[in-house]
Amino acid sequence: MYLIGEFREKESATDAIRELRAAGVAACNLDVFSDEPVELPRGVLDRPSRMSLISVLGAIAFGLAATAFVYWAQHDYKVVTGGMPLFSFWATGVITYEMTMLGAIVTTFVWFLWESGLARKRDCSAPVPKVDPGSICLRVRCGAEQAPQAAEVMRRTDAIHIERRGEV
Amino acid sequence: MAPELLPYQRIREDLFRPLSGISRNYAVATVIAFVVGIAGLMAWGYQLRRGMGVTGLQRPVFWGFYIVDFVFWIGISHAGTLISAILRLTSAAWRKPVTRAAEALTVFALMIGGMFPIIHLGRAWLFYWLIPYPNSRLLWPNFRSPLLWDLTAIVTYVIGSVIYLYLPLIPDMAQLAEHNTPWRRRLYRALSLGWTGSDREWHALERAMKLMACIILAVAVSVHTVVAWDFAMAVAPMWHSSIFGPYFVVGAIFSGIAALLIVMSALRKVLHLERYLTPYHFRNLSKLLLLMSLLWLYFTVAENLTVWYGNDPKEMAVFGARTRGPYAPYFWTMVVLNFVIPFILLGIRRLRAIRTATIAAVCVVVGMWLERFVIVVPTLANPRLPVSSSSYAPTWVEVSITAATFAAMMMLYMIFAKLFPIIAVWEFKPHPQEEN
């Protein structure tokens, strides 16, 4: 089941998350909804990301693939170069550079879609709260036995509205 | 009241309001832009039917208005990415109402600029020969050619800029999907990809925006450097210069900021965004424009002074044509428009206002177009073989197509402003990192 608590202040939501984590609720079972980015203090609800690493790997992969392709294409159809090498890093460096950057762009975008969950199959049973401007909603996924304790935590930390929804 | 202090609901209403309804001025401007655009398309059709002979291009001046327009529009495209990315990376709070207008300008300018190599090809229907694909002729494009460098650089820049514009639009579109007409609801719902506003989504968006800002900066600089190398790689007088790359990048940023000022001024008036696009934003952009004007002057002097001092006969022929000969009126008008007028209007604090900033920006845009002309044509008209010297005068076909590109920019911008909020609504609230 899901519990949804609505908060007016970021600090209250932060306290609620801290206490829920201390009570044994895993970070993956907590979601914060808002109409603007809410930056919680470090260690409260960190979402580790591999976006930078993936971006670098994508850039390297695209750059290598582009260079290999250019090398192969220049040898597949040999143009007259007047004794100059068929393939030269200097002469094709721009292609390598641009394709490296394209790799970084494409992988960053694709990883954003994946990491944000926008391109993943969603759990349709999970309710999405309607967030009023300025408020913060905290969604907790918990078992029926944990629900009263979680609701009590939210009440104690100044949730203005608590709602119980759905069955897991 | 400063917009940051307004209730969020009010900000939303103010910024979403321009999306609905069409005013008389908007309709008139659309019709004018449409007519000019159609005239340009007809001129291009005429050129396709009759061949490149209908242009003023002739031996040895094979690059004219089309290449000037290409370099000019690619330069304008530097407005968005550079301004938006630099301000985003430095967490400049005043960027918020400016960034989306700049990012949209980038995408549209690239779309328009990217058309010119195709128009210039003459046989435009064969443009796909540039793309490396397995074919019956067993040929591959020549990857050493700057033409192919242009293709890869511009394709990369277009893809990056579209993504960079699209990412911060997602949360706004999710909000727009809630209340709107059915077709708009469907459009926004599809484009917002089911955005819910969860912390996972916000975190991923912020990370992606930061990374994209870094990447797009590197791409933007490289794109205009590659455009400069189209010229500098040729051993032609006054082109074969090692500072051409940075010179073009500086010019691009300069013209980009000017174009952004014009767009902002128009949007402020037409969409009644006076509360959001304040004199403060114009003042900051004016300072940037002034700085770029000085940098541009520095590069222009450095470029011309070394040529003059070197006194190489081939280079001096081009230098003379630019400064004393048939192209002198363009050269000196360029200096007045790019330096003298902006320096007076923006350098004197008392004169610095929205209206003067807009006038200075218009001067710079015209001046930068002239700069491209002065770089491209005199060199080709005075090649190393003096016997083949010639001149260039554009025909009505080239003028019509050039005018159509400005109309196209206007139309694209007006359509965009009716479909998407021109200011990022969610960004208007203080950013958590700025709060810290």
Output the CATH topology of chain B: Formate dehydrogenase/DMSO reductase fold
% residues in beta strands of chain A: 5-15%
One letter per element, helices H and strands E, the order of chain B comes to HHHHHHHHHHHHHHHH
Q: Stretches of chain A where pLDDT falls below 50 for ≥5 residues?
A: none
- The share of residues in helices of chain B is 55-70%
| Biggest interchain interface, per-side counts | A-B, 51 and 55 residues
The whole-number mean of residue pLDDT values of chain B reads 89
Q: Give the count of helical stretches of chain B.
A: 16
H/E element sequence of chain A: EHEHHEHE
N- and C-termini, Cα separation of chain A: 5 Å
Average pLDDT reading of chain A: 88
**Name of the CATH class of chain B:** Mainly Alpha
Structurally, how many domains make up the residues of chain A?
2
Q: Estimate nothing, just give the exact number of structural domains of chain B.
A: 1
DSSP, total strands of chain A: 4
- The structure class of chain B reads mainly alpha
Total E-strand runs of chain B: 0
Choose one word for the global shape of chain B. Answer: globular
Short description:
The complex is a heterodimer of chains A (168) and B (436). Chain A has helices at 10-22, 51-76, 89-116, 147-156; strands at residues 2-7, 30-33, 136-141, 161-165.
Please provide a written account of the structure.
The complex is a heterodimer of chains A (168) and B (436). Chain A has 168 residues and is an alpha+beta fold. Chain A folds into 2 domains: 2-35 and 135-165, Alpha-Beta Plaits (2-Layer Sandwich); 51-116, no CATH class. Chain A has 4 helices and 4 strands. Chain A has helices spanning 10-22, 51-76, 89-116, 147-156; strands at residues 2-7, 30-33, 136-141, 161-165. The longest helix of chain A has 28 residues, at 89-116. The model of chain A has no long low-confidence stretch (mean pLDDT 88). Chain B is mainly alpha-helical and 436 residues long. Chain B has 16 helices and no strands. Chain B has helices at residues 8-16, 24-50, 65-76, 78-89, 99-121, 146-166, 169-176, 182-192, 199-232, 244-270, 279-310, 313-323, 328-347, 354-381, 396-419, 432-435. The two termini of chain B are 23 Å apart. Residues 430-436 of chain B have low confidence and may be disordered. The interface between A and B is large, with 51 and 55 residues.
